[in-house]
Design brief:
Elements lengths: L3 E4 L3 H13 L3 E7 L6 H4 L3 E6 L10 H11 L3 E3 L9 H9 L3 E2 L4 H8 L1 H10 L7 E4 L4 H11 L3 E5 L9 E3 L5 H16 L4 E5 L5 E9 L5 E13 L2 E7 L6 H17 L4 E10 L2 E8 L6 H8 L3 H9 L16 E8 L1 E2 L5 E2 L2 E2 L2 E3 L6 E5 L6 E2 L6 E9 L2 H13 L2 E3 L5 H9 L1 H4 L7 H5 L10 H21 L10 H4 L7 H4 L1
Parallel strand pairs: 1-2, 1-4, 2-3, 4-5
Antiparallel strand pairs: 6-9, 7-8, 7-9, 10-11, 10-13, 11-12, 12-15, 13-14, 15-22, 16-17, 18-21, 19-23, 20-22
Helix pairs in contact: 4-5, 12-13
The structure holds ligand MV4.
Length: 500
């Protein structure tokens, strides 16, 4: 039995884990850095511990402080959320050595799956499809070309120590190979301290399709279906959905079985995600993410299950709540991520105070938020503010619902990609389900928001000033505060050209 959980994280995922813990009658402990004293996750917890200065290395990444905080508050488990220490096997080990339950996989399994070469080998041994490839340790240059030709161009060079797209190169022609190989090795050495690279057949225009899996301590392993996460910008997902438009019952059975084979072979426990590239009826294992993922709400909608509740049950030693045959997929869910960033300016992070926040509310609309009106968005952490997920019986209706939800998501104070998200959702290629990981580059290159006409701008300004005044009044005991929009709107700006 778990009675009290410390959430070693912040923002929307910390708030989300606390919601389920509360429903299960489990007490929650928040941790916070100095800039997060007033953050939503702190207010959502039963108690909270200050773990240090703003830089993550001094707070959310500091293992000693996190374990001390759990022990001093009498927590019996730690949930790592995602990011920060969630996939760090040393942390999992130290949490368990301290006599606490780590709500996540075993450290050895994380280590194995964190090693790209080892997990490719594992897949190969268990007949899970992978791209054709070869490791290149110290081969002489002439051999590199031979290896590449046996795989066939185009080729992708990846650093064995890399991840998230770092240190990757595509080579289309044999004559580019040696220079790319040498550059990739230099890059890998300086970025990861390890020059080892490998070659893979390059899959052009792939879809990113991943499977949610769960394993318990009793030998049970099942999948909760797939998520399609092809819409990305620089290896950061922005829209995810389930089911994938390319999925059939037969393909789901095959990919699901492959996902389960891999995690069983790795001695995995708890929630995990098995990533595949998909192209033209074929799928290729990429990697396992040893954590709960940002996009888990789409799976919760289509399965009707609470994934955090499953994580907690498994960590407490219980059996999986359901068997594979009891999992049914119904309807269609889409998630849009709301980041504090400027999609019209190279996705630069945008910081400041959330001046006005109105979230959409409707049946089939879920908002997972880490912010409130008045919250400060700092530059110290991952810029995700919240996620909007919609659910309906068809994909078309879920998209329609999302467009409406985003129209009713009012956030002033920092820049967000809401207008870009709407342009993606309205794009004919998105609507017809023609998704690839190159979608933004192919269909919306150099995207800029449409400039509003003057009437629309005037209405927006008026609405914003009313909302800002109302919010000020709220925090002033209902008494209006007489200020002009120019004093209250903070980082709200009007481009010169729209006034001329
Ligand atoms: C690939 C690929 C095409 N062919 N491997 C990017 C991150 C890393 N986890 C794997 N990645 C890719 N590996 C082969 N053999 C294309 C990508 C890729 C990608 C994969 C998933 C989601 C978005 C992506 C964006 C660009 C490239």
């Amino acid at each position: 039995m778990i009675k009290k959980i410390l959430i070693a994280n912040r923002g929307e995922i910390a708030v989300r884990v606390m919601r389920t813990a509360r429903e299960l009658g489990i007490a929650t402990v928040a941790v916070y850095s100095e800039v997060d004293v007033h953050a939503l996750h702190v207010q959502s917890a039963d108690e909270a511990v200050n773990i240090g200065a703003a830089p993550a290395s001094e707070s959310y990444l500091n293992m000693d402080k996190l374990i001390d905080a759990a022990q001093s508050t009498g927590a019996d488990a730690i949930h790592p959320g995602y990011g920060f220490l969630s996939e760090n096997p040393d942390f999992a080990e130290r949490v368990r050595a301290a006599g606490l339950i780590f709500i996540g996989p075993p450290a050895d399994s994380m280590r194995l799956l964190g090693d790209k070469i080892a997990s490719r080998k594992l897949a190969e041994e268990h007949k899970v499809p992978i791209t054709r490839g070869a490791i290149l340790e110290d081969i002489a240059n002439d051999k590199v070309l031979k290896v590449a030709e046996s795989i066939g161009f185009p080729i992708m060079i990846k650093a064995t120590a890399g991840g998230g797209g770092k240190g990757m190169r595509v080579v289309h022609e044999p004559k580019e190979l040696i220079a790319s190989f040498e550059a990739a090795r230099r890059e890998a050495q300086s970025a990861f301290g390890n020059p080892t690279v490998y070659l893979e057949k390059y899959i052009e225009n792939p879809r990113h399709i991943e499977f949610q899996i769960f394993c318990d301590d009793h030998g049970n392993a099942i999948h909760l279906g797939e998520r399609e996460c092809s819409i990305q910008r620089r290896h950061q997902k922005i829209i995810e959905e389930s089911p994938s438009v390319v999925m059939t019952d037969e393909l789901r059975k095959r990919m699901g079985a492959a996902a389960i084979k891999i995690v069983k072979a790795a001695g995995y426990r708890n929630a995990g995600t098995v990533e595949f590239l998909y192209n033209n009826g074929e799928f290729y294992f990429m990697e396992v993410n040893a954590r709960l993922q940002v996009e888990h709400p789409v799976t919760e909608f289509v399965t009707g299950e609470d994934l955090v509740a499953w994580q907690i049950a498994i960590a407490a030693g219980e059996e999986l709540p359901k068997k594979q045959v009891e999992i049914h997929f119904r309807g269609h869910a889409i998630e849009c991520r709301i980041y504090a960033e400027d999609p019209a300016n190279q996705y630069l992070p945008s910081s400041g105070k959330i001046l006005v926040l109105e979230e959409p509310q409707s049946p089939g609309v879920r908002v997972d938020s880490g912010i409130r009106q008045g919250s400060d968005v700092s530059v110290y952490y991952d810029p995700i503010l919240s996620k909007v997920t919609t659910y309906s019986d068809t994909r078309e209706r879920a998209i329609q619902k999302m467009l409406s939800a985003l129209n009713h998501y009012i956030l002033l104070g920092v820049r967000t990609p809401i207008e870009l998200l709407k342009d993606v959702l309205r794009h004919p290629e998105f609507k017809s389900g023609n998704l690839t990981t190159h979608f933004l580059n192919d269909h919306l290159p150099g995207w800029k928001p449409a400039s509003p006409d003057k009437k629309e701008l005037a209405r927006a300004l008026f609405a914003a000033s009313q909302a800002a005044a109302a919010s000020q009044a709220k925090s002033n005991g209902g008494v209006p505060v007489m200020q002009t929009p120019w004093q209250t709107l903070g980082s709200w700006e009007i481009a010169k050209e729209s006034l001329s």
